[in-house]
Design a protein that fits this description.
The complex is a heterodimer of chains A (about 425) and B (about 220). Chain A has 14 helices and 17 strands. Chain A is α+β, with helices and mostly antiparallel strands and about 425 residues long. Chain A folds into three domains: about 200 residues, 2-Layer Sandwich (BirA Bifunctional Protein, domain 2); about 100 residues, no CATH class; about 80 residues, Anticodon-binding domain (Rossmann fold), CATH 3.40.50. The longest helix of chain A has 19 residues. Classes of the chains: A alpha+beta (about 425), B alpha/beta (about 220).
Chain lengths: ~425, ~220
């Protein structure tokens, strides 16, 4: 192993598929902690954990969000020739389960999940192909309270995972389409404008509106996109001059949502109303939201009302929900370089010849107190580097206390090490 | 606007981007400032100079909040960015061109067509739109050579003046698109740095409009 160069072992099968990551000890522990924090929060709000497969029939997946993005699925063939896909998101799986095995409710049904999703992104683009996603679905209620609950729950889950200062952009899937419908545009132009908005191409929006008969109120709103954002006051500004009922109804829903969110403890500091929010209009039907942080160029998560999805499974029910990318949250936390999360090294036990049994007993007792412990597998005459506690040939224990070593029996050692490790916090986390 | 990081394309659009940012009062940039370093701190902002095709990559991944790039690059880049302002410089056209003596040059479309192009995405969209079944051949340069050597029946390429086409005895059959420089922005920056991005877009839009007014006044 001396002077091992990367060339050594050339030809050995050591490759890794592009776009997939290994999570090493430390980052992997953080990732699990973030996911656990999400699930703990979800369950604390009464959401039952649901586990669904990573493989679904292609036509099931196709019923879900972004059917147009099907090219980005990993697809393969089952033994009988039917087409399968690795799931690219999990809301569609939850919808399938509700429409089949959970038809009896009780509604509204609160479900949560955490699991990998896979997308066949182009190689070398810098995007992950496998990500861990956690999310909630609230099914069977068309009340705005359900939408407010999802926004508030997502916000609290992020906070509990240590992601502070998150910005929540709340919009409405019906606002822009409704605005266009009421603007007196012909179908072709409306389609062009919506497509341009979906493509996030504001230059094309402007070009499509040029020379059309669109009303002044609507034109100025459309051209101010994406500046259609702010606090509650923007709702009144946007309503000025609008006559069509559909966009006004969307604004009214946002007004009521704003007040519910205030009751949830979310105010203008965290919540931004974003009327220009451009989302998948063939999927979302009501309020939508996205979660951002200044540390990252991608949203941490997103959600919204999708009242049409369950009907595609023959079980029409209103629904709302959200998904958070655990991996992007980890990216954001690592960029903040918070020292709060260093993977805790285990307490290491060394022992002299003949004291192996004592080491095992000590390890058991410390683990019972909630400490993370690794006992050496070979005896050592002296405590080597990295050893926290050592049992000598006379069965006396020596443990580190700051820079000095203490000596005593096993009871003393267990107490001292337990106190030194600040272990009560750990015990609490494990629910002991 | 302060604190934003913008990606600028090297090559033909760099001078125009620097000029417009200066006229808009955003930053007093000169192309020469990038000679020694690729990352310039100026007027409280950061500017990076990259290959044009890399500008949307920096912006999508959030390494830059925004950038200036030609629309022709965006045609080919499957990148998720907001396209905010048409900056109206660096104009060029995407045209289908065929040899002078060909039937296509006289407006007769053959049932099948082999087309050489550097812009396969834009070409695919164009031919789908007009309903022509074209076989595309992706080349990386010297597109004009393809018809002369029998590699393709026609080319779909960018032209600014038409000089290269004429020199290679190619004539324009139809225009497939127009490209100018655009201001693009990252999808998160547009939310989390909304004020700064809005200020930048507004300043650039005003500068573009002022140029239009000046040009009309001179005419």
């Amino acid at each position: 192993m001396d002077n091992a160069s990367p060339v050594d072992g050339a030809g050995a099968p050591r490759g890794r598929a592009g776009g997939f990551s290994d999570w090493l000890p430390g980052p992997a522990a953080r990732r699990r902690a973030v996911s656990d924090a999400f699930l703990d929060t979800f369950e604390g709000w009464g959401y039952g954990l649901l586990a669904t497969p990573v493989v679904e029939p292609l036509d099931t997946v196709a019923a879900g969000i972004g059917a147009g993005r099907q090219t980005s699925l990993f697809r393969f063939m089952d033994a009988d020739g039917s087409l399968l896909a690795l799931v690219g998101e999990r809301t569609v799986s939850v919808a399938r389960v509700v429409a089949t095995q959970l038809r009896d409710g009780p509604f509204p049904l609160r479900l949560c999940y955490s699991g990998p999703v896979l997308r066949n992104q182009a190689l070398l683009g810098g995007r992950r192909r496998e990500t861990l996603q956690a999310g909630c679905e609230l099914i069977g209620s068309d009340a705005l309270g359900a939408d407010a609950e999802c926004v508030a729950l997502a916000a609290h889950a992020l906070e509990n995972a240590g992601l502070t200062g998150v910005q929540i952009d709340v919009g409405h899937a019906d606002f822009l389409p409704g605005l266009l419908e009421g603007a007196g545009l012909d179908d072709a132009t409306r389609e062009r404008v919506l497509q341009a908005l979906q493509d996030r191409d504001l230059v094309a929006v402007e070009a499509a509106l040029e020379g059309t008969e669109v009303g002044d109120a609507e034109r100025s709103l459309l051209l101010r996109f994406p500046a259609l954002r702010g606090g509650r006051e923007i709702l009144d500004v946007a309503a000025t001059g609008l006559r069509a009922e559909r966009p006004l109804r969307a604004l009214d829903e946002l007004r009521r949502l704003w007040e519910l969110l205030a009751a949830h403890g979310l105010n203008g500091g965290a919540i931004h109303l974003d009327l220009g929010a451009v989302r998948d209009w063939d999927y979302y039907t009501g309020p939508t939201f996205e979660l951002f942080t200044r540390d990252l160029g991608f949203p941490l998560g997103s959600g919204g009302r999708y009242d049409q999805l369950l009907a595609r499974f023959g079980f029409p029910l209103p629904a709302t929900g959200f998904v958070i990318s655990v991996d992007r949250c980890c990216d954001a936390l690592m960029r903040r370089a918070d020292p709060g999360f260093a993977a805790q090294a285990p307490l290491r036990i060394g022992y002299a010849e003949g004291q192996a049994h004592g080491a095992i007993v000590l390890a058991r007792r410390l683990r019972d107190r909630g400490l993370s412990v690794a006992a050496d597998l070979e005896p050592s005459a002296e405590p080597g580097a990295g050893v926290h506690v050592h049992i000598d040939t006379n069965a006396f224990l020596h443990w580190r206390h700051g820079a000095t070593w203490c000596k005593g029996g096993m009871d003393d050692a267990v107490e001292a090490l337990f106190r030194a490790a600040g272990a009560p916090a750990l015990l609490e986390r494990r629910g002991a | 606007m302060s604190g934003l990081r913008l990606a600028l394309p090297n090559g033909t659009l760099l001078q125009g981007a620097c000029d417009l940012l200066r006229e808009a009062g955003v930053a007093s940039l000169q192309p020469g400032m990038f000679d020694e370093t690729l990352l310039v701190h100026e007027s409280g902002m950061q500017f990076v100079k990259t290959r044009p095709t890399d500008v949307p990559v920096y912006v999508e991944m959030g390494a830059c909040d925004g950038g200036v790039v030609g629309k022709d690059i965006l045609w080919e880049a499957a990148r998720d960015c907001y396209e905010l302002v048409d900056l109206r410089f660096g104009g060029c056209r995407l045209v289908l061109a065929a040899p002078e003596e060909s039937l296509l040059a006289r407006g007769q479309w053959p049932p099948s067509l082999r087309v050489a192009t550097k812009y396969p995405q834009a070409a695919r969209q164009f031919f789908d739109r007009i309903g022509v079944a074209a076989e595309l051949i992706k080349l990386h340069g010297s597109i004009e050579l393809a018809p002369a050597t029998g590699l393709a029946d026609a080319v779909l390429d960018i032209t600014a003046s038409g000089r290269t086409l004429r020199a290679n005895r190619l004539v324009e059959v139809v225009e497939a698109g127009r490209s100018t420089a655009r201001l693009i922005a990252n999808q998160a920056s547009i939310k989390t740095r909304a004020t700064e991005i809005d200020e930048l877009a507004t300043a650039l839009r005003r500068a573009v409009e002022a140029r239009g007014t000046a040009a009309r006044g001179a005419a």
